[in-house]
């Protein structure tokens, strides 16, 4: 078929060969892939609990051009009164060697092995521990990292990790307090990718469609879509879904509010909210509640606060003799207690 009459259908059909999941079309893997596969079974599990001295980590995943960056930008804009940093997985692409550059059209940029996950993991853990990091800058036209420049990212209240495969590695997933999957129609994603790659990355439409059929769509089916099951929140339509984003921001604000309280008062401990506690708070805030129910549920909440507070007091070991003559080893308070009753206004 003459080049000038090449149709979009022909390009897509010619590129849609056997289903492919490898890093490159010829199936060859980089030398580090074997080591990465061997180490995956020994991954350590980290707790994702949101502690007062740690930032809130959000993972945002989804297919190519699904609107992940738009969702992240909207979250950042609404959290303007907090320090928020965005770390893109695209910054951690591996630079191609000369052999790979010669066959760049056969390189799968949507495969997990195309990313330096170890460096992404290291940078994220440093940010969580309160350290600043240097995030690499990747040139999508040269397929290399910039050797003389980087992006300085400082520790913040909220860390957003964004990328198509940020849920793929369990070690990275376990660092997240919230996982968001942006779910957008495949046709919309393809149209956005064509516009982005032709306008921003200097590619022609035929090469974009060929890469999509060879690598992008198979990688989405094999790696991105299966990671959707790890998401805590799924946002249909991406940045157009303002209701979902508002709810997410509200949840983050609640968590950060507890975080800020503990920062201001180092000796303050926030009891973890449960459905039972929220239900009792709802009842005692209802102006139509009966006096009996108000006293009953208030008393239960007070008991929970007292019990939680007693657990933070200093104790010493003490032995007592029970009425049956047995010796029981328990604990005794080290200091005297002082209770203060605050009258409700």
From TrEMBL:
Residues 57-243 form the Phosphoribulokinase/uridine kinase domain. Residues 273-344 form the Phosphoribosyltransferase domain. Keywords: Allosteric enzyme, ATP-binding, GTP-binding, Kinase, Multifunctional enzyme, Nucleotide-binding, Transferase. The lineage of its organism: Eukaryota, Viridiplantae, Streptophyta, Embryophyta, Tracheophyta. CDD domains: UMPK. This is Uridine kinase. In the C-terminal section; belongs to the UPRTase family. Belongs to the uridine kinase family. Its EC number is 2.7.1.48. GO terms for molecular function: ATP binding; GTP binding; uridine kinase activity. It catalyses: cytidine + ATP = CMP + ADP + H(+); uridine + ATP = UMP + ADP + H(+). It is an enzyme of class 2 (transferase). It comes from Glycine max. Pfam families: PRK, UPRTase. GO terms for biological process: CTP salvage; UMP salvage. Pathway: Pyrimidine metabolism; CTP biosynthesis via salvage pathway; CTP from cytidine: step 1/3; Pyrimidine metabolism; UMP biosynthesis via salvage pathway; UMP from uridine: step 1/1. InterPro entries: P-loop_NTPase, PRK/URK, PRTase-like, PRTase_dom, Uridine_kinase-like.
């Amino acid at each position: 078929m003459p080049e000038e009459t090449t149709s979009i259908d022909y390009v897509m059909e010619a590129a849609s060969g056997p289903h492919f999941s490898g890093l490159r079309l010829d199936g060859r893997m980089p030398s580090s892939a074997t080591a990465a596969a061997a180490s995956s079974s020994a991954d350590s599990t980290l707790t994702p609990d949101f502690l007062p001295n740690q930032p809130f980590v959000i993972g945002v995943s989804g297919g190519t051009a699904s609107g992940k960056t738009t969702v992240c930008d909207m979250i950042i804009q609404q959290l303007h009164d907090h320090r928020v940093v965005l770390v893109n997985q695209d910054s951690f692409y591996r630079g191609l060697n000369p052999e790979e550059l010669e066959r760049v059209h056969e390189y799968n940029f949507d495969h997990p092995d195309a990313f330096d996950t170890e460096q992404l993991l290291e940078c994220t853990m440093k940010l969580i521990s309160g350290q600043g990091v240097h995030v690499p800058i990747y040139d999508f036209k040269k397929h290399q990292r910039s050797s003389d420049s980087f992006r300085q990212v400082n520790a913040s209240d909220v860390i957003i990790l964004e990328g198509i495969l940020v849920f793929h590695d369990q070690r990275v997933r376990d660092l997240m307090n919230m996982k968001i999957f942006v779910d957008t129609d495949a046709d919309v994603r393809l149209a956005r990718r064509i516009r982005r790659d032709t306008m921003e990355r200097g590619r022609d439409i035929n090469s974009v469609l060929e890469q999509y059929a060879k690598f992008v769509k198979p990688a989405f089916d094999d790696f991105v879509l299966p990671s959707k099951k790890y998401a805590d929140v799924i946002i249909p339509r991406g940045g157009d879904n303002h209701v979902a984003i508002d709810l997410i921001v509200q949840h983050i604000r609640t968590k950060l509010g507890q975080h800020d309280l503990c920062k201001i008062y180092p000796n303050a401990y926030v009891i973890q909210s449960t459905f039972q506690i929220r239900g009792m708070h709802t009842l005692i805030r209802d102006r139509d509640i009966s006096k009996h129910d108000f006293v009953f549920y208030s008393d239960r909440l007070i008991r929970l606060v007292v019990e939680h507070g007693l657990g933070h007091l200093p104790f010493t070991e003490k032995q007592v003799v029970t009425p049956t003559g047995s010796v029981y080893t328990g604990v005794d308070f080290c200091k005297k207690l002082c209770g203060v009753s605050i009258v409700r206004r």
